């Protein structure tokens, strides 16, 4: 069964001992260092010799590094190889003309700690109704909460820490196949995403959830201000980060992780409900990344309404618009739901009854009153009806056609590199 690929994922809460957690954290930092170092090696090889290093050559370099550095040798060899394969896949995605990914970038120290393992290096077994154990190299068995069945053959695993707790995610081959027809054919719903109400449906339903309570939001703002003052004082003194500053940063990370978990839970719940109940789901084609860009501008040309734009950006990101779109696509694979994207222009200003479009039709955030026919409805529901009745938008450009090519790339795609000599071609294959 090792020749099959993972087609679904399972994530569980992991409960390592203090000693196991300390070693896993050390491995997570080593994996981040290895990824960044391998990225720099590829960039240097291209810039200096126009050679594209492959994963095979970098695995050989990893073997040499394990001989010289004890803390690198402490990381399981399979995990280091998996990190290099992930980097190689990132480059392949960048080189793919149909893939929207840009060039690989460095992983920041504040990024989530994660340690990958291939399926051959681990073993999973269930010990009771509520608990299971996963056997990891050099660590042994670690308990995890058996909250759902695996449902297939484990092909890989990733142990990660999100600031609150440890988790283990399994890539599982479960034989997932998209059904030819939905269980409820002919059912169509339009979904409007908003900043006050997260999701509004064309049938009148509105789903929303507050991910950060007001008290915790004030607490988080205070912690961030405190962390900023500590960092400013540290730079003035030229000292190292204090233990108090580390505690404040850890508290910020725990609070933000809880908010992310609540947002992810809501988004997954909503996507599951919608895909199960409807054969076709229509949403607006929104470029969330462009919509949430900063408005600060430059010193020569400062931005306009910067504070208001920053507040709108926070509200959009807090509701998880992009995460919801990804969750819909993932859930639609198992239900056979068709996700249709429609043009977003004027959906909130157009009357769903007569089609009259005017910016004055929307009197407030929640109230829509048509100036032509007098139709009155909730503004978000009216927009969702327009989304449901709109025609499908044209397929957007993908891959390199939508990338920002203005900045200098550290390693060009194969289609843009010059013809290499036989010696260089031979070296790049190893």
Automatic annotation (TrEMBL):
Q: Which GO terms describe its biological process?
A: DNA recombination; transposition
**Entry superkingdom:** Bacteria
Pfam families with a match to the protein in the record: Cas12f1-like_TNB, HTH_OrfB_IS605, OrfB_IS605
Which spans does this entry mark as compositional bias, Basic residues? 234-246, 405-420
- Species name for this entry? Micromonospora viridifaciens
* Domain Transposase putative helix-turn-helix residue range list: 9-49
Q: Which InterPro entries match?
A: Cas12f1-like_TNB, Transposase, Transposase_put_HTH
Q: Which family does it belong to?
A: In the C-terminal section; belongs to the transposase 35 family.
Tell me which UniProt keywords the record has, alphabetically.
Answer: DNA recombination, DNA-binding, Metal-binding, Transposition, Zinc
- UniProt key word Cell membrane: no
A single GO molecular function term of this UniProt record: DNA binding
Q: Where is the Probable transposase IS891/IS1136/IS1341 domain?
A: 177-293
- Where in the numbering of this chain does the Cas12f1-like TNB domain appear? 321-387
The UniProt annotation puts the region (Disordered) at 222-246, 396-430
Full protein name = Transposase
């Amino acid at each position: 069964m090792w020749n099959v690929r993972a087609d679904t994922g399972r994530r569980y809460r992991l409960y390592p001992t203090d000693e196991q957690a300390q070693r896993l954290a050390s491995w997570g930092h080593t994996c981040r260092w290895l990824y960044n170092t391998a990225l720099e090696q590829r960039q240097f090889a291209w810039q200096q010799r126009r050679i594209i290093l492959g994963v095979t050559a970098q695995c050989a370099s990893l073997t040499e590094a394990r001989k010289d550095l004890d803390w690198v040798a402490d990381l399981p060899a399979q995990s280091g190889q998996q990190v290099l394969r992930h980097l190689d896949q990132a480059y392949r995605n960048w080189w793919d003309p149909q893939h929207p990914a840009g060039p690989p970038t460095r992983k920041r120290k504040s990024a989530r700690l994660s340690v990958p393992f291939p399926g051959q290096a681990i073993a999973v077994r269930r010990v009771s109704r509520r608990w299971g154990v996963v056997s990891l190299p050099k660590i042994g068995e670690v308990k995890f909460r058996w909250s759902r069945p695996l449902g297939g053959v484990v092909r890989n695993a990733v142990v990660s820490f999100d600031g609150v707790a440890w988790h283990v995610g399994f890539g599982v081959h479960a034989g997932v196949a998209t059904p030819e027809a939905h269980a409820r054919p002919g059912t169509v719903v339009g979904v409007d995403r908003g900043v006050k109400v997260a999701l509004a449906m064309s049938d009148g339903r509105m789903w929303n959830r507050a991910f950060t309570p007001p008290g915790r939001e004030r607490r988080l703002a205070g912690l961030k201000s405190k962390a900023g003052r500590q960092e400013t004082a540290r730079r003035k003194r030229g000292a190292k980060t204090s233990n108090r500053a580390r505690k404040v940063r850890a508290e910020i990370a725990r609070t933000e992780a809880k908010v992310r978990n609540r947002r992810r839970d809501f988004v997954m719940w909503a996507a599951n409900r919608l895909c199960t109940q409807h054969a076709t789901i229509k949403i607006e084609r929104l470029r969330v990344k462009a919509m949430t860009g900063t408005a600060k501008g430059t010193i020569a040309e400062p931005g306009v309404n910067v504070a208001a734009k920053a507040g709108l950006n926070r509200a959009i990101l807090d509701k998880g618009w992009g995460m919801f779109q990804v969750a819909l696509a993932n859930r639609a694979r198992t239900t056979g739901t068709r996700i249709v994207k429609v043009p977003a222009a004027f959906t909130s200003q157009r009357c769903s009854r007569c089609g009259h479009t005017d910016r004055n039709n929307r009197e407030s955030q929640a109230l829509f009153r048509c100036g032509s026919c007098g139709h009155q409805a909730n503004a978000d529901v009216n927009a969702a009806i327009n989304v449901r009745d709109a025609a499908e938008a044209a397929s957007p450009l993908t891959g390199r056609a939508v990338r920002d090519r203005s900045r200098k790339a550290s390693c060009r795609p194969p289609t843009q590199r010059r013809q290499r000599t036989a010696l260089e071609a031979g070296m790049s294959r190893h």
